[in-house]
Amino acid sequence: MLGLSGPVVAAEGETTTIKRDEIQRLLKAHAEQVPESFKSFLKQVRNETDNADLQSAIDGYLQGKPLEGSNFVNLYRLLGIYTRLHYGDDVVDLLGEMVAIPTSKQGDTPSTRTLASSASVS
Q1: Are 63 and 2 in contact (CB under 8 A)?
Q2: 36 to each of 30, 82, 102, how far by Cα in Å?
Q3: pTM, to two decimals
Q4: What letter does residue 6 receive in the DSSP assignment?
C-alpha cells in the first residue's frame, strides 16, 4: 500500500515538479500497456525519463526514504498518472452509467421517489 501523507513544504532552491507536458507524455507512453503495479510503473518511468528531479523522487520512494517538497509532489503526480491509466476506463464507464440513471425533479426540489418505487408505480 502506498502511503503519501504529510506536509508538503518546498525548501529554498528545491527541485521542480513535473508539468503538464511531461504528464501527457507519460500518459501516452503507457496507455497501451499499463504496468500491473505502481512499483513496476515507477521503475519503467525511472528508466525512460531524463528528468533528474523525477528520478530522485522515484529513487527516494523505492528506497523507502521520506519524501518532502517537490519529490513528494512528483511521486503524488505519478500515483495519479498510474491510477488514471489503471482505472480511467472503468471510471468513465461508471460515470456513464450514473448519468443514465433516470431522475425526476419538480421545480427546485428533487423527487423523493426512489428507483425501486418508481419501477412499481405505473
Answers
A1: no
A2: 11, 10, 36
A3: 0.64
A4: S
